[in-house]
TrEMBL record:
GO terms for biological process: 'de novo' IMP biosynthetic process. It comes from Marinobacter nauticus (Marinobacter hydrocarbonoclasticus). Coiled coil: none annotated. This is Phosphoribosylglycinamide formyltransferase. The active site is at 116 (proton donor). The gene is purN. HAMAP family: PurN.
Length: 220
């Protein structure tokens, strides 16, 4: 009799929008050798296309609609309860456009990742592509970080750069950055599932040693 295969880490993805990063993760985790499994997709917006993508992939979905809650704390408590029902090993924020409370973040310390469209620590917050163009930067990119209580401020695991062209618009830049996002997020989620990255007391640990700077994909 064959032994059952070892259980792989359970991934829960939270999204708010079109879910292109979710799709990249769905595609990656479907590869036979991927060391993790998406077990559920949560969303704060009924009707978001991310939910459609999840349904197409036969994934369990849930919606916790933030407009139905009187405060951030109540929303986060409801979201937390829903997530805990699935008992994930990793929570992946993939375009999840809500600021999370400290209690929520603490519940998943070292087990929650976020993707942010800038080379952090530059340009935390919104409208990063527009702000990069206004500043005249020649380089832009994407960061994936552990989520801590500081907004877009957790230790950065990996980054990918894109070159900013003279004629780039916020839209063209967003497209270039997203292409890199779709490559980088599956790589980092794989590292997590393989046990290669951890959040240590001093920051990100990779293969058991602290990293001095984020891992980088070269400029395209
Ligand atoms: C991405 O650009 C991500 O960096 C940002 O929100 C966007 C989500 O896009 N946090 P999608 O829903 O994955 O298409």
């Amino acid at each position: 009799m064959k032994a059952d295969p070892a259980p792989v880490p359970k991934i829960l993805v939270l999204a708010s929008g079109s879910g292109t990063n979710l799709q990249a993760l769905i595609d990656a985790t479907r590869e036979r050798d991927f060391p993790g499994e998406i077990i559920a997709v949560g969303c704060n917006k009924p009707g978001a296309f991310a939910l459609e993508r999840a349904a197409q992939a036969n994934l369990t979905t849930f919606v916790v609609d933030h407009t139905k809650y009187g405060s951030r704390e109540e929303f986060d408590a409801a979201l937390l309860a829903e997530i805990l029902r699935h008992n994930p090993d990793l929570v992946v924020l993939a375009g999840f456009m809500r600021i999370l409370t400290s209690d929520f973040v603490r519940a998943f310390r070292g087990r929650m990742l976020n993707i942010h469209p800038s080379l952090l620590p530059a340009y935390t917050g919104l409208n990063t592509h527009q702000r990069v163009l206004e500043a005249g930067d020649r380089t832009h990119g994407v960061s994936i970080h552990f989520v801590t209580e500081e907004l877009d401020g957790g230790p950065v695991i990996a980054q990918a750069e894109v070159a900013v062209a003279e004629d780039d618009t916020p839209e063209s830049l967003a497209e270039k950055v997203q292409q890199q996002e779709h490559v980088l997020y599956p790589i980092v989620v794989r590292w997590f599932c393989e046990g290669r990255i951890q959040l240590g007391t001093e920051g990100v640990m990779f293969d058991g040693a602290p990293i001095e700077r984020p891992m980088r994909l070269p400029a395209n």
